[in-house]
Design a protein that fits this description.
The structure is a single chain. This protein folds into two domains: 2-55, no CATH class; 68-125, no CATH class. Helix content is 34%, strand content 5%. The protein has five helices and two strands. It has helices at 2-6, 23-34, 46-55, 83-92, 120-125; strands at 98-100, 112-114. α2 (23-34) crosses α3. The radius of gyration is 19 Å and the shape is elongated.
């Protein structure tokens, strides 16, 4: 926030409560009242960003949602696989570690580095 303010970029803190029963409707109303537009940067929980995108009639991109013009900056290969294939690749030694994140629901779980077939996190996901 400080860096944005130093650059004279206005910052607005949303008032909608995270635990409100109808937070989605409240958030839509608040964003509408603020005059949200496609030039605004929304930094929030993923579900809140989805509401903001919906208000702007912008479709949420399907994962992997890295823009092609930025893929060279990832410094890793990105492909779609299954957790079973990840388990097999780690067990066979084909990879010593892999970064995994959901391919369908972007925030079904946090992205994480798995280090082997006995990795507790992999077992939890399977």
């Amino acid at each position: 926030v400080e860096e944005l303010l130093v650059r004279s970029i206005p910052v607005v803190f949303l008032q909608t409560r995270v635990n409100a029963d109808n937070w989605s409707v409240e958030l839509q109303l608040e964003l509408g009242a603020l005059g949200l537009n496609s030039q605004d940067l929304v930094v929030a929980l993923p579900s809140w960003v989805e509401v903001a995108l919906h208000c702007l009639s912008i479709t949420v991109p399907a994962p992997p949602d890295y823009p092609s013009c930025l893929r060279h900056l990832l410094r890793r290969k990105v492909w779609t696989s299954t957790l079973l294939e990840v388990h097999t690749a780690l067990a066979s030694g084909a990879h010593s570690q892999l970064f995994v994140k959901p391919a369908v629901a972007a925030k079904a779980f946090n992205g994480m580095v798995l280090t082997g077939p006995a990795d507790d996190m992999l077992e939890m996901l399977l």
